[in-house]
Amino acid sequence: MYLHGRNVLREILDLNSKKLKIKRILFTNQQNVSKELEELKLRCLKRGYKVDEAPPEKLYNLCREKKHQGVVVDLKEFPYTDFEDIIELSRNESVFPLVLLDTVQDPHNLGAIIRSAVAAGMRGIIITEKSSAKVTSAVVKVSTGLAFRIPISIVTNMARTVEILQEEGFWVYAASMEGEPYFSIEFPEKAAIILGNEGEGVRKLVKEKADYIISIPMEKEVDSLNVSASAAILFFELRRQLSGGE
Question: Any signal peptide, and if so, which residues (predicted)?
């Protein structure tokens, strides 16, 4: 996986996780690069990462993005978190809001949802194994590198995942047009919000497993919001309530 961009590299350096399997980090070999890029290169060297230089054309060929900002990270694979580890984390924290994505397929939507989730203080994201976008270089870029800040897990059965979360004390809320207005809901400290496929929404069986169905009221002439826009609204309402309205 080839990642690009200075913000993405900063997130990786700030995280400093052993879970990240970085093969090498390539910087442009152009003369008179910015002080910012030189400082990033120095940080990489201090961390012991393998650092190489290459012409801008090679960086483009690797990441297929002209705006690579002079840096490309060669990452072996994205470090997903086991679902069981997310459950274990939730047992040690009183406030633990979660995101469940039921077959969200567009990488840009996934990246935007990740960015909103981190910004709103969500504690984990769970996606389905089949018919779902996975974390790619494009997703990391859209998330501005924030994909490395939040545990992301892949599960094979979302309906069963909902049941497990409920057994662990979570209340689960599925977003759908026919639900109760989201602002009328008093969210608990352990809430999981399910967002569905861009075209079909949350699947029937998954929706039936949820404790509540919630909606975002809107004008009659408007069909629905983009799933990433809906996610941001719901995440920040949850944040508002869990932080005491601040």
Answer: none
Its domain, for residue 120, covers 83-242
| Residues 61 and 102 both lie in one domain | no
Same domain (yes/no): 66, 128: no
> What is the number of structural domains in the chain?
2
Q: What is the 3-state secondary structure (H, E, C) of the chain?
A: CEEECHHHHHHHHHHCCCCCCEEEEEEECCCCCCHHHHHHHHHHHHHCCCEEEECHHHHHHHHCCCCCCCEEEEECCCCCCCHHHHHHHHHCCCCCCEEEEECCCCHHHHHHHHHHHHHHCCCEEEEECCCCCCCCHHHHHHCCCHHHCCCEEEECCHHHHHHHHHHCCCEEEEEEEEEEEHHHCCCCCCEEEEEEECCCECCHHHHHHCCEEEECCCCCCCCCCCHHHHHHHHHHHHHHHHCCCC
**Domain stop point among 75, 104, 125:** 75
pLDDT digits (tens, 9 = 90+) for 18-65: 778 899 999 999 877 788 888 999 999 999 999 999 998 999 999 888
